[in-house]
Amino acid sequence: MTANFMVCNCKQVSYNDILDALHGLDHFDDVTSAFEDVQKISHCSTGCGGCHDKIMKIISDAMYGYEAKEDNSCK
User: Is 18:38 a contact under the CB 8 Å cutoff?
Assistant: First the structure.
């Protein structure tokens, strides 16, 4: 199990918050559409936008069943 970590510091959205938002969707098969839905639910990446790529990767990894590891390279 992956440890929870903060992904979007501006809006205080964690890795688990993103996964919870994804699991609340009826389906997701398109990373961009899933990102938009997760953004509406969690408000992630609506501040500075520095977490956008990290969130896209988390969604992509979730689609393919990968677990993310904490990456502090983004804001």
Answer: yes
Q: Name every residue whose Cβ is closer than 8 Å to that of residue 6 and which is 6 or more positions away in sequence.
A: 12, 13, 14, 15
Rounded to 5°, angle at Cα 62 from 59 and 66: 125
- Classify residue 3 by its DSSP letter: P
The model's pLDDT over 7-62, given as tens digits with 9 standing for 90+, comes to 999 999 999 999 999 999 988 789 999 999 999 999 999 999 999 999 999 999 99
Residue owning tokens 């609506």: 46
